[in-house]
Amino acid sequence: MAAGRAVLLEADGGARGNPGPAGYGAVLRDADTGEVLAERSDSIGVATNNVAEYLGLIAGLEAAAEIGARSVDARMDSKLVVEQMCGRWQIKNAGLRPLAARAATLVRRFESVTFTWIPRERNRHADALANAAMDRAAETAPAAAPAVRPPRLVEPPRTVAAPDPAAREAGRAGPGATGPADAPTTAPASWEPRETTDATRLVLIRHGETAYTNQGRYSGRGDVPLSDVGVAQARATARRVAALAPSVAAVVSSPLSRCTATAELVAAAVGDVPVRTDPNLIECDFGAWEGRTFAEVRSGWPGEMTAWLGSPTVAPPDGESFVEVGGRVRRAMAGLLGAYPGETVVVVSHVSPIKLLLRDALAAGDAFLHRLFLDPTGISVLDAWSDGGIAVRTVNDTAHLAGLDA
């Protein structure tokens, strides 16, 4: 058992085509014995090398948190990820900043985390897991390109301690620190107003009311339709979005009908834009708690409820943890920013995915998930710039619901 002990994390990721069919791998070892404690691997569809590498690091840190490790020595053959996590290289790519912020949040769970750059030949286990995941991604990708991975700098391995979490989350290099000319960088913190024309704007909408919403029941993977009130809310939301965002490039929805019905009304109002579904936007799987009220769960599973409220790594019985939900939501976010640069995208989803998106955008802690309330068809808006800047402009706006019969 590794609880309270030091662990070694080896992580890697890659894409065949950059972007192309992508996947990551992570291995946890006992720092003293070298025993393999856990492996994580997943295909992530079409993404870049850097996105896959960050997701490999995040998966490994999540696994370390799950087993209660005290300290982590993270070793990667990605110079970029190591330098960015240590705060010496800035982050420019908008799709990487939420991933770096999520990794920084995970780092705070441990007493200490160090990052070590190692040559690829010393990262073979994680590399093999990542390549197997890329194989799985390539099987479902049309006309996958040959494997192409950019060269990585060859230099003696060196270990550095992670810097102050606030500096690391800001993604800012220290005085005089520089990276290569093509390294993504994060814009320095500033109050100066930004132009919005080059930002990808995400209009996040929770679906309309259902019978479960009205009764305060856990509604996860169950396909509960909109109620009559929910339909009216969705129509009002469609009119509001059309006024807020007259030019919409895409409407992307969770595949559950309460979301697709909301999304279809919005899509028709903004110019009959086709609705695309993304399974990564589906609600958390609440397992045995599905369809039950909070009081019923507290009565039937008091210990499990307390543990679930206390840690995002804990899942409801037969369900899914917020850590797992967060992983797929970050994949959805990276895909949207990569596919629609500088455009407006409407995203129709559920409470948990939207909360996780906003938590990452604000670089907030996990307590945020239990402190933010989202109404049915509440609208939240965030902008992501190509230089790495993120601005949350609106959270849970419900002005469009004024006057609707409850």
Architecture overview:
The chain has two domains: 165 residues, Ribonuclease H-like superfamily/Ribonuclease H (Nucleotidyltransferase, domain 5, 2-Layer Sandwich), CATH 3.30.420; 202 residues, Phosphoglycerate mutase-like (Rossmann fold, 3-Layer(aba) Sandwich). Helix content is 35%, strand content 20%. The strands form two sheets. A six-stranded mixed sheet has the order 3-2-1-4-5-6, with helices on both faces. The protein has a six-stranded mixed sheet with strand order 9-8-10-7-11-12, sandwiched between helices. Strand 8, helix 8 and strand 9 form a beta-alpha-beta unit. Helix 9 crosses helix 10 and helix 11 crosses helix 12. It is globular, with a radius of gyration of 21 Å. About 12% of the residues have low confidence.
